[in-house]
Amino acid sequence: VFLASKTAALFLYTKAYALVFKGSDDCLVKIWSSFDGRLHSTLRGHSAEITDLAVNYENTLIAAGSCDKTIRVWCLRTCAPVAVLQGHSGSITSLQVKELQSLYYAVCFKRGFIQCFI
């Protein structure tokens, strides 16, 4: 994952599906095919800049953190929304998706504070 500061875009790549994920200040997460460069899907729902992206280990879910203080999760197979995680008091600055005994949880960090969503 790297941040391209000029375009305010965040990119993530997964080998499993050969997809490139882009989140940026347009509030959208776009999924591109790395085989032919075509736009696969556009995921909507955030109302502010996307700050981080994470894909789960099985490559079935993508989560996006945003300055709108929420984390949104989509199914990668159908691109349907799965969850909106709310309750953070500030912008989501870092996001990780982990699996713990078949439960997924998202962890976000801000100024030394950690919040977990299950």
From TrEMBL:
Q: Which Pfam families match?
A: WD40
User: Where is it found, in Gene Ontology cellular component terms?
Assistant: nucleus
GO terms for biological process, alphabetical? cytoskeleton organization; regulation of cell shape; regulation of transcription by RNA polymerase II
* Residue ranges of WD repeats: 43-84
Which InterPro entries does the protein's record reference? Bromo_WD_repeat, WD40/YVTN_repeat-like_dom_sf, WD40_repeat_dom_sf, WD40_rpt
Q: Does the keyword Signal apply?
A: yes
Which keywords describe this protein according to UniProt? Signal, WD repeat
Q: What SMART domains does UniProt report for this protein, alphabetically?
A: WD40
N-terminal signal peptide: 1-18
Which protein are we looking at? Uncharacterized protein
Q: What is the species listed in this Swiss-Prot or TrEMBL entry?
A: Neolamprologus brichardi (Fairy cichlid)
